[in-house]
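Researcher: First entry.
Model:
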Amino acid sequence: MVRLKYEIEDSTIAELLGVQNFTNEESAILELVKNAYDAGATELLINFNSNGLVISDNGVGMNENDIRSNWMHVGKSNKRYYSDFSFTLPKRILAGSKGVGRFALARLGKKVVLYSKKESQNEVEWTTDWNESLLEKNISQPKINGHGTKIYIHELRDRWTQNRIKNLSRYLSTTYNDNVMNIVIKPEQDDQVKYIFRNPEMGKTHVSEIELSYDNCNYSLNCIIKSDEFKQEAEKYFQNEKWNLQEKRINVYDELVNDNSLDEIPEIEFKQMLEKIGPFKAKLFFSLKVYSNQDRDLFLYKYPTLHERYDYGIVLYRNAFSIASFDGKKDWLELNKRMRKSPAAATHPTGSWRVRSNQLSGAIFIDKQKNPELKDMANRQGLEENEYFKLFSEIILLGITEFERGRQKFIRLVNKKNKNQENQSNQRTPVLNEILQTKCDKLNLNEAKVADLKNEIRALQTITEQASREKDEIESNYRYDVRILNSFVTIGLKAAAIAHEYKNNRNNLTENYKNIVEALKKYGMWGELNNEEHTRFTYQNVPFLLQSAKKINEETCKFMDAMLEDLEKSKFQSQDLNLKEKLNNIRNSWEKNCSNLNFKLNISDDIVYMGSSDVLTTIFDNLILNTWQQNINSENVNITINAIKMNNLIDFTYKDDGIGLTKKYLDNPDKILEVHESSRSNGHGLGMWIVNNTISMTGGKISLIDGKKGFYLQFSLGEGK
């Protein structure tokens, strides 16, 4: 038997592994930078001149044997974790692993001349035009002193303009984050390429920081949020909290175990994945792109502008270098997609504000050895977007969400304060009132009154501007709410249409079982079908199958009745409603369909709710639905509803003795009010948001949520809205 080896032309290798493998010239140069880094270089020069491109380093260099056995061996790579060069301190985590980075030369130019020398050894020369390669051991005019490598690339495939060289400098500043090797680019610059996030400064490059540290052994994410976005006056809004410094440890398992996007992962494997993904860290920087004068005054923004604002996006680094296609240009965390799902403004009273991709920059750090499941794609142009990558992204988003909550909480308080001040200002126009009540020919305004009048006019102008802004804000919030609710209305109308069709055939649905049984008895088959021989197996047991069909038909009829009842037009008309009677109707409807629910209503007979019936139905149907779904396997669940009327508000408590909230909500139960928050893997996360939104629209509010022992909700409801 003869062993065979594949043979391939040099030009084909160059085309496949060089020209086609590297998407652009910048990524090709980066591969050569990585080669120099792995060679232990402390100095790297990238020099563009009239003859082409010269890349030189003072790394360990190569000798004849290295050229023959490594450089000319496709796929030959040193897959060690650390470098082992004695002169390199400290040790470096090697960047290369595939053994194809050298073919980046083919992407850059058609001809290459390489000189290399190891300490105290002879210099070698390697040349290629990608049709053949030549090695020269006797160099008449040495190019290198000491040790290192110098590469001359001729007949460049790209035209390197000043602007393109400047872009290369920025690209390397983004992709290289170590300081052990100085990189100099000529002729564009004569100093070293500098890491883009080297000198972050509050008020200059950003206004808030998010520091994340994931502990894979404990499945916990430590989140530290620092902010200098708002003026000192902001302290009065957070009297019992440090609004400019927050620290929280998030239990990732509790938060994500039932997450919709990860529900295909079996729970038994989930903790293993959380451990195998490995530890990592991140530091993210937030700032708005534009701060208007009006916004600064309204929301107490501290800085009028950021002169050196970070706008590099979020970069993913594996040790000293960023991962291709994760260099900040791509919204790889899908922040904008996430924002479109929840487009609420930060001032929205119930919606969840989401940060945009152009508002966050920063770095996330993973390790070649500690995070092995985050794998490079075969073409080295990104990461495999496998289950681990998906989980990795979700963990990062947990920290970002924590920042969003804190910032929105503050802005809501500021916005509420502004509206109160605006209402007060509307009454402070004594001079203007005097003028309006006096005939023009009798006006006698001295200088002081003229000055007061001017101030009042200016104040009214401010109020007008604020009113216009509030109008725009209300319209934006309205569009947000309507978009979500319209989808539910559409589903409801479709269900109602189907229910109407079924209702027309109700007699058939309810009478079919009886008719079939009578027919089988008439034909003398019923007794035969009920004997032991024919009922031994469930799938052949005709009486059992008919009984099951009867039960399904009965449940279908109940569903139809419920759907059609909920869509009665009268429910949307404002009227005086006996509260106890209305809630009794809701209770009766649920008891007919859910035998495991037991209700207790503590409501006076004389409480009248002045509003539309749909408000009460929406709130309590969603609350009861949550109780039922959370405790669907429980034999009995007790629900207690209390109500008392105080002035123009009705105070409610709703509680059940079920399993309560899942662990992810126990420390901060208000999270369940956010859009798309759900403790069930198949939950849409809109029920409690709808409850909160409906309560808010009446002028009421939720005052307390507790889920430690069953579920408990305390809220007030306004009338006449």
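Researcher: Second entry.
Model:
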Amino acid sequence: MEVKKLCKMQDSGLKRIPYNSGETSINLSNDVVEILLGSTIIRPSNTSVKLRLYKSDFIQGLCYIITQLPLYNSSSQGYKKVEYSMDLYNKYLANINAFFENSESKDYECNIILRKDGRNYLNDLKKGDFSIRDFLVENSSQITYGSSDDGVKYLRISYMNPIAETKKQGKLLISDKTHCKFALKCITYFYNSPKWNNIDNYVEDFKEGDSIKVSNGQKLSLAGMFIYVSEDELIARNDPRRRWYTEPFKIKGKTVYLSTEWYPGGNEDKTYSLEIPKLGKFISTCFGSQYKIIKNEQAWELWELSNDNQDQKTKKESEDNKEDKKDSQLPFSISRMISLISETGLLYSPDLIKRFAFSLMSKRFLILSGLAGSGKTQLALAFANALIEDETQLCVVPVGADWTNREPLLGFPNALQEGLYVKPESGVLDLLIEANKKENKAKPYFLVLDEMNMSYVERYFADFLSSMESHKVMPLWKGFSDEVPQTICLPDNLFIIGTINVDETTYMFSPKVLDRANVIEFKISPDEMDLFLREMKPIDRECINYKAADMAANFVSIAESKDLADDKEIRETLTSFFKDLKAVNSEFGYRSATEIYRFVSHAQTNDDTEKKMTLAEIIDCAVVQKLLPKLHGSRKKLDKTLNTLWKECFDDEAQKETTSISADKVEKAKYKLTADKIQRMYESAMANGFTSFSEA
């Protein structure tokens, strides 16, 4: 007989967020007590019990803890951040070995306290330097209490990834890196739901000119969560520091305002109650336990958990809807996508969105380059979110400066425990596994690598770059698991979008990497900045989520197609570029030629807008995306190449011979984007003696 329990915050020695608590015991439910003591329960009482522990559980726990750091130890006085070090690893390992000595299992003697009020605790857990609480991680450790046929009571510990498990069980509703903004987003979400009136039952101290307390007896109290004042008084109270959001909410028919003073948890002032963990309890109290707040390395997230008790009728309806969706697939329309993205408030030119879409069709690896804040990531997310059916088709990963190998993307086999593969928390491996499933072949999957050049891309992305060209599988491990295959490939329905910022904090890409992608440079013009400042408005990217999913299958089909129409003009143009570049030893290869041809063909075939791009404009985009990114080196090395490409930008033979590289002649060029970029690269080479696509 066994009972399994997931360890919550109060029972865990290691917590995921800062928190003050002085617990030294573990809460026990009555069914656990029955397994350990039998059905006869006497209150109050204090009973000694021996629990069989297994060394392998704690070795596994140590490995898991190391992958989850940093975590937090807490006491009644405060909390301490636990970060990785060899000393920490050796300390945990020494404590395990000291307790178990040379045995694989050992009895752990402790007490079960049965209180008069009905609460039960497992107490007296410290044995020298060893305690099972030290190996319990909040919302990740699962304890199995059991009793064998021969009467031995035992305790087993297993581990899971809370973020991955939540993602399997539900859908992401809210996400934000800033805890204050996250709180506002959560309250706004529920305010717009039919359940909002549930909050009325928990509001106290409702008087004008004062803050409002939300309370659920003694279990939950959020003093000062809202304030009830006039709009004028709110402005006065927010001067000089904004302490209340100006977005109005209604509680019991009265207009109130939400506090901005939210903390991530573990605040030293214990009387201050506006902490995100308490917000989670508040949400569960007012709106139901199907909502859950989690904190990963990048952001706070609000999840809506799925209902496992969905009846068969609902399941059948869901399957029927999927079949209907398949039948209702529409052709991909770039004009419709442009219209959708405009609804978000994001300001992009139609030609930029066209370049983005047609680039992904021609090559499923796209790099967006430019200054920080120029809209690279926003465009990637807007496009992807519009096409997907649910959040499992999109994975956004901020690249870390400490990435030195593929482990943050693909995980690694556990060297200490055979048969265990450690998945990365980034979610990339899960995305690849889902994209490779037969039933998902018609769905697009998007991997967005944000700030891709924060580390050397050749180190952490080498396997991906190799697989892109060879189409070979990437080996993962030699073990066997239902969750992790031995090898994985980059399927044709996977689209990888990397963003790179060009500044002194980043590493430049090698021409080898740039040659394997389409590269779109985000450069804001004075007119675009003027338009932005005149029409400044809130961005609502979520308003188009899933709205283009009915043309996603066709988008994937176009990207997978190898059929291209023979076009004499394209062939002649590419041949001309090739001959001239070969004369200065800068020619391109078959891969670049193929991808340029594909881009031009897709742009001609799939542009359904009223103002279609001309062939010259399309070729201009293709050249600046595929040929120029490879240019990298000294002025001496690139002088002839830049001048040769400059001449190709002009139509008139006289212009080709007499026109020198200068900014005032860009507007006269046939290929204006290419000419403008060449002029900037040439200027950089003249000034610095060196130039590259990324830095010019």
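Model: Note on the second entry: The chain has four domains: 2-160, 166-305, 322-546, 568-692.
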